Amino acid sequence: MTDNALLCWCRAGFEPELAGELNERAARAGHPGYARTERNSGYVEFIVEDAKALSRALPWSSLIFARQKLVRLADLRGLDPADRITPMLAALEAQAGSGLNVSMFGELVVEHPDSDEHKPLAGLARSFGNALRPALRKAGWLSKADDARRPRLHVAFLAGDHAMLAMSEPGDSSPWPLGIPRLRMHPDAPSRSALKLEEALLTFLDADERERLVRDNMQAADLGAAPGGWTWVLMRNGMMVTSVDNGPLRQALLDSGRVDHLRADGFSWQPKRKLDWMVCDMVEQPARVAERMATWFREGWCKQAIFNLKLPMKKRWEETKTCLEAFEYQTHRPMVVRARQLYHDREEITVFATPK
């Protein structure tokens, strides 16, 4: 029952990439430890002497392969299905005795890793939350109404008799259970790739930034646009879009009056004036995409961009580092760069960039 680990969710199959990222960044921050995980489990435990200090040293916004960042409070094994609540309350009391700096949690999240192995636990997670909330409130551990200002308590089921208690801090963690925003495919969207850009705008920009940076009549370019999923998102947000691709776009986009389709190569086309936004989801080697994105900022062709980097099958963390470092170096200017493997990404990461 010790808080000696970070517990991070990730896309199943990308546990080695997250483990490598945590190992390197923790050592660089002066909190060395070791990662423990299994392939396709959907999570990584990072064992470290002081998980709370490491959590402060690794801001949520800086992590790429983690969907969620939690500080583990207790690892409870051998739970009796007839009474899982009593040992959880006891674990919280033990934590309080050892200095848990939380008098009351603002919200309870009961979840399980997003993996094929753990999906059968979904029903248990839903029903158990309804039973645990009143018990936590009676014991004084949970506010009577959700309070977004307070830390969240997470119960993560790994099996019917195995759960971890963890906590997350508002503003330094994903606001969504498992770090997955609940987005639905719009019937008018030309492709499912629209969900990637919608998630990117939600993930990388806070409410104030979205109000300031995503406005009607902004000028945007979509490189490698066909069939038009990302163009559709930009248009739906009121922008005027130049869609660059030799392939066809959905006719509804062309009929909107907000889309200009140019049959050209996204790697060679350049705008005649500075644009508010450039987005790019071209299928190409990540180093080549990163170099072209850097050119856009070095030449001052756009104010901000969102682009994808398609990762190789091996050494994906190393390739991610190499491409992002090269991108920032080749822009020849200080940049704000936010990168993450989004829920709607597959073998790729998504990057938001803008000059400082």
TrEMBL record:
<feature type="domain" description="RlmM ferredoxin-like">
    <location>
        <begin position="5"/>
        <end position="70"/>
    </location>
</feature>
<dbReference type="Pfam" id="PF18125">
    <property type="entry name" value="RlmM_FDX"/>
</dbReference>
<feature type="binding site">
    <location>
        <position position="281"/>
    </location>
    <ligand>
        <name>S-adenosyl-L-methionine</name>
    </ligand>
</feature>
<dbReference type="InterPro" id="IPR029063">
    <property type="entry name" value="SAM-dependent_MTases_sf"/>
</dbReference>
<feature type="binding site">
    <location>
        <position position="193"/>
    </location>
    <ligand>
        <name>S-adenosyl-L-methionine</name>
    </ligand>
</feature>
<dbReference type="InterPro" id="IPR040739">
    <property type="entry name" value="RlmM_FDX"/>
</dbReference>
<feature type="binding site">
    <location>
        <position position="265"/>
    </location>
    <ligand>
        <name>S-adenosyl-L-methionine</name>
    </ligand>
</feature>
<feature type="domain" description="Ribosomal RNA methyltransferase FtsJ">
    <location>
        <begin position="191"/>
        <end position="283"/>
    </location>
</feature>
<feature type="binding site">
    <location>
        <position position="245"/>
    </location>
    <ligand>
        <name>S-adenosyl-L-methionine</name>
    </ligand>
</feature>
<keyword id="KW-0698">rRNA processing</keyword>
<dbReference type="InterPro" id="IPR011224">
    <property type="entry name" value="rRNA_MeTrfase_M"/>
</dbReference>
<dbReference type="GO" id="GO:0006364">
    <property type="term" value="P:rRNA processing"/>
</dbReference>
<keyword id="KW-0808">Transferase</keyword>
<comment type="subunit">
    <text>Monomer.</text>
</comment>
<keyword id="KW-0963">Cytoplasm</keyword>
<protein>
    <recommendedName>
        <fullName>Ribosomal RNA large subunit methyltransferase M</fullName>
        <ecNumber>2.1.1.186</ecNumber>
    </recommendedName>
</protein>
<feature type="binding site">
    <location>
        <begin position="226"/>
        <end position="229"/>
    </location>
    <ligand>
        <name>S-adenosyl-L-methionine</name>
    </ligand>
</feature>
<comment type="similarity">
    <text>Belongs to the class I-like SAM-binding methyltransferase superfamily. RNA methyltransferase RlmE family. RlmM subfamily.</text>
</comment>
<dbReference type="Pfam" id="PF01728">
    <property type="entry name" value="FtsJ"/>
</dbReference>
<dbReference type="GO" id="GO:0032259">
    <property type="term" value="P:methylation"/>
</dbReference>
<dbReference type="InterPro" id="IPR048646">
    <property type="entry name" value="RlmM_THUMP-like"/>
</dbReference>
<feature type="active site" description="Proton acceptor">
    <location>
        <position position="310"/>
    </location>
</feature>
<keyword id="KW-0489">Methyltransferase</keyword>
<comment type="function">
    <text>Catalyzes the 2'-O-methylation at nucleotide C2498 in 23S rRNA.</text>
</comment>
<dbReference type="Pfam" id="PF21239">
    <property type="entry name" value="RLMM_N"/>
</dbReference>
<dbReference type="GO" id="GO:0005737">
    <property type="term" value="C:cytoplasm"/>
</dbReference>
<keyword id="KW-0949">S-adenosyl-L-methionine</keyword>
<feature type="domain" description="Ribosomal RNA large subunit methyltransferase M THUMP-like">
    <location>
        <begin position="83"/>
        <end position="168"/>
    </location>
</feature>
<dbReference type="GO" id="GO:0008757">
    <property type="term" value="F:S-adenosylmethionine-dependent methyltransferase activity"/>
</dbReference>
<dbReference type="InterPro" id="IPR002877">
    <property type="entry name" value="RNA_MeTrfase_FtsJ_dom"/>
</dbReference>
